[in-house]
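User: My collaborator sent over this chain with a note saying "see what the structure looks like." That's all I know about it. Can you take a look?
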Amino acid sequence: FIKNLISKKYTDYSSIYNKAETINIDLKGPFYQILLIDIDDFYLISENISSSEKELLITSIINLSNNTLKKYYTGIICQSDSDYLISLINLPDNSSNVNKLSTDIQQVVYKKLNLSLTIGIGEICAKLPFLTNSYKGALVALRKKVYKGKGSIIEYTKLKDHEKNKPVFYPDNKEKEFLNELRFLNEGKVMVL
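Assistant: Without extra context I'll predict from the sequence alone. Here is the result:
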């Protein structure tokens, strides 16, 4: 559902509100913001556990994060198709600050599961059709983890203009395979890729 919202698959936004109500997601706004949550070192953590244990770990992080979110705003945190969690937050005004929420999510997950999270914060938007912009901003912010370090909270609006204007690339399967082989130091395959 959220994936379809951020990819602009909907054209009739009144049906979105009905569907959201049906699945118990509040989209009343009046402002919205996307957060992307990356589990630091997730590949290393999950390489020696079963897929069911991996799913349990992700579900635990989602539940802890959603419980923390409810203390501040309405919204939802769920798993995305990529390697991060996505949060859609309803904000009461356009000057809301989700930094405290982000810090609390990090602290709760670290305290309960001993895991570090990096959070990318997109820009605030006033209408659902603009969620794509918030998502893209959160993704750009999250990609700055390489420079800011693990356990960071990175706001798109605080990035310098030249950092914002770099295009957002989505890794293709070849890139993912290359990174995986590089991680396992498989020199023969890395040279081929």
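A starting point for your reply to your collaborator: The first strand starts at residue 31 and ends at 39.
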